[in-house]
């Protein structure tokens, strides 16, 4: 069974809800931001990543799930963006 954070993210993807994400980057810097979650996918290197549209800076970003400290569903909806990056790969 997935952990509660993963369950929150998966539910937000299905419901098209904006998330507030608490994240620690590779340098150990912790930040909280809002994002539209789109999918969990495997990278070319085989790592699972969460593809999001970050709000504020407005750009695509890939997050490492193990660096997500928490995710809160804001209840606000979003419309799917027309184009996902062509580098999305289907998970196995």
Task: Draw up the topology in text.
Blueprint: H1 4-15, E1 17-24, E2 30-42, E3 48-54, E4 59-63, E5 68-77
Antiparallel strand pairs: 1-2, 1-5, 2-3, 3-4
What does this structure look like?
With 92 residues, the protein is mainly beta. Helices cover 13% and strands 47% of the residues. It has one helix and five strands. A five-stranded antiparallel sheet has the order 4-3-2-1-5. It is globular.
Keywords:
single chain, 92 residues, mainly beta, SH3 type barrels, five-stranded antiparallel β-sheet, 1 helix, 5 strands, 13% helix, 47% strand, globular
Short structural summary:
The chain has 92 residues and is mainly β.
Spatial shape: globular
Q: What count of domains describes the coordinates?
A: 1
**Which fold name fills CATH's third level, the topology?**
SH3 type barrels
Low-confidence region ranges: none
CATH class: Mainly Beta
Named CATH architecture: Roll
Count every beta strand, where a strand is a DSSP E run of 2 or more residues.
5
What share of the residues does DSSP label as strand, in percent? over 45%
What count of helical segments does DSSP give? 1
Give the terminus-to-terminus CA distance: 18 Å
């Amino acid at each position: 069974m997935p952990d509660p954070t993963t369950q929150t993210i998966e539910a937000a993807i299905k419901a098209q809800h904006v998330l507030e994400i608490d994240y620690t980057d590779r340098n150990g810097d912790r930040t909280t931001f809002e994002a539209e979650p789109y999918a969990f996918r495997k990278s070319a290197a085989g790592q699972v990543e969460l593809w999001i549209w970050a709000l504020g800076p407005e750009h695509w970003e890939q997050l490492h799930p193990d660096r997500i400290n928490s995710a809160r569903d804001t209840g606000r909806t979003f419309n799917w963006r027309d184009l996902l990056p062509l580098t999305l790969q289907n998970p196995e």
